Amino acid sequence: MKKKIAKILALFALVLGMTVHANAQDILANGIYYNIISDTQVAVAPAIFDGVNRYEGCIILPERVYCDGINYDVAAIAPRAFWQSQVTEVQIPNSVTMIGEAAFADADQLASITLPLGLTAVSRYMLAGTAVTHVVLPEGVTDIGMGAFEDCTSLRTVFLPISLQTIGERAFGYCTYLN
């Protein structure tokens, strides 16, 4: 009897473990993973499997994603969504208003990024360790977080908006070619 209960509990744990793993991302559309964050919005989620971020190449994020009869606005990018990925270019739609900490950190092949017009803050370590060369921060950005562009050794120009109020420690640390 004890062996039978142990087998049932082991099977239950296995099924539960699979369910938790399968729900790590709620939606997969055109190679991008999303988590539902409200009845009408999703956030781009990391694609980390076996410790490796699977995103690569040029990523053009859509403004909306359709799933199960619902159109979701792509409103955010989760922390570490593209961390250590092999992306080379990312275009972010204006529907995105929040980009999480270290969202692109150490994506060392990322050379070009288009930031959304509704962005109000550059999060901590958001682009640290990338290969971006030019960045245009949209009007409305008030804060640049600590280490946001740290170790961006290819960074040459950054256009700062008039709305900017604070720049965090080491935001541009080790950006040796920044003019």
Q: Oligomeric status of the shown chains?
A: single chain
Order of helices and strands: HEEEEEEEEEEEEEEEE
Q: Can you give the mean pLDDT?
A: 90
Measured as a percent range, the helix fraction is 10-25%
Uncertain spans = 1-23
Task: State the shape.
Answer: globular
Q: In percent, how much strand structure appears in the residues?
A: 25-35%
Q: Provide the structure class.
A: mainly beta
Major sheet details: 6 strands, mixed
**Alpha carbon gyration radius:** 19 Å
Number of distinct beta strands: 16
First CA to last CA: what distance?
Answer: 74 Å
Helix tally equals 1
Question: What is the element layout, followed by pairings?
Answer:
Layout: H1 2-22, E1 27-29, E2 32-36, E3 41-44, E4 48-49, E5 52-53, E6 56-60, E7 64-67, E8 70-77, E9 86-91, E10 98-99, E11 112-114, E12 121-122, E13 134-136, E14 143-144, E15 157-159, E16 166-167
Parallel strand pairs: 3-8, 6-9, 8-10, 9-11, 12-14, 13-15, 14-16
Antiparallel strand pairs: 1-2, 2-3, 4-5, 7-8
Folded structure, characterized:
By secondary structure, the chain is mainly β. Helices cover 12% and strands 31% of the residues. The protein is built from 1 helix and 16 strands. Strands 1, 2, 3, 7, 8 and 10 form a 6-stranded mixed sheet that branches. Strand 1 and strand 2 form a beta hairpin. The protein is globular, with a radius of gyration of 19 Å. The termini are far apart.
